[in-house]
Amino acid sequence: MKTKGAILWGIEEPWSVEEIEVGDPVTGEVQIRMETAGMCHSDHHIVTGATPMPGYPVMGGHEGAGVITKLGPNCPADLQVGDHVILSFIPACGRCPACVSGNMALCDLGAGLLMGQAISDGTYRIQARGQNVIPMCLLGTFAPYMTVHHTSVVKIDPTIPFEVACLVGCGVPTGFGSSTHVAQVQPGETAVIVGIGGVGMSALQGAVLAGASKVVAIDPNPWKREQAQKFGATHAYASMAEAIMPLLEATEGRMAENVILTMGEMHGEYIEEGLILTGKAGTLVVTSMGRMDESDVKLNSFLLSMLQKTIKGCIFGGGNARQDAPRLLALYKAGQLNLDDMVTRSYSLEEINQGYKDMLDGKNIRGIIRYTEADW
């Protein structure tokens, strides 16, 4: 079918909204009419080249929610035309060693996420200007329609608004799970969240719901610090350096049991800064993405060893999308997880470049693309 999509044709180029062709679903695939797409910082990493792609053009978007319109052969019986679904940016086969050991965020299917070939048959589902297009994370939610393998699809409660549902495909479970699954924040502990965007605000809410007595938000943007306190932060500072002395005083010298790095771009020197805020036997969780071509990390190895601190990486919150997404949306319905206020602005697909400018300017916690009948 012919539709439109936001295509990237090279590093540091703007998103180009133009005509694309999306293939019909084959074995194990579904076609989805998209309602919303989240504008995550990870898509901007392919613009800057921080996440290298094997080639161009690339279709952006890996957060999204919509309605199934077509089913290919041999799809799971629990997926039907008309179902409301979200897209999980990492597929989960349920059978590989990572999945069966409980690490579905590390499913072996993830090895091909940036290559572009469909899981089902190794071909491409999107064409633009007569060329094959690589969809971000084998999804490409920056288009009104998409064809995707069922392992990337999670059925959701149809009463959930699409505007917030799309966030549980990446940002919300990534941040929330950083606190609950990876850091394993416990009641009464101190948690520090560095970087208050969509992922950071989700990590903050995870720490609050886990029972942390002190939740420290760190961000250079005054508006984001103000928002963080509305979401449950007990303290807010502009930088990790600024937080050192107040945190020492507030914790009687013990510092934080958990520090979670969720800034939009990771750099090696942030590890040492984060470890300074981390107490004895504490955990530093690195959720933020750095450039694949950077490998320098700064840290004091003496204090790392002598104070028995731990550094953990984190992808997708260390969770399971099929289990976590329904649970997070249940918390939303119960009024315990604030997703409505995380959606700062809605944009049309044609406004995508303005949306990313607003993100980089610190104006949004999360911007979303809202599709309408005019797009379908």
UniProtKB/TrEMBL annotation:
Its cofactor is Zn(2+). Its EC number is 1.1.1.1. Keywords: Metal-binding, NAD, Oxidoreductase, Zinc. It catalyses: a primary alcohol + NAD(+) = an aldehyde + NADH + H(+); a secondary alcohol + NAD(+) = a ketone + NADH + H(+). Signal peptide: none annotated. InterPro entries: ADH-like_C, ADH-like_N, ADH_Zn_actinomycetes, ADH_Zn_CS, ER, GroES-like_sf, NAD(P)-bd_dom_sf. Residues 10-369 form the Enoyl reductase (ER) domain. It comes from the Bacteria. Belongs to the zinc-containing alcohol dehydrogenase family. This is alcohol dehydrogenase. It comes from Nocardia aurea.
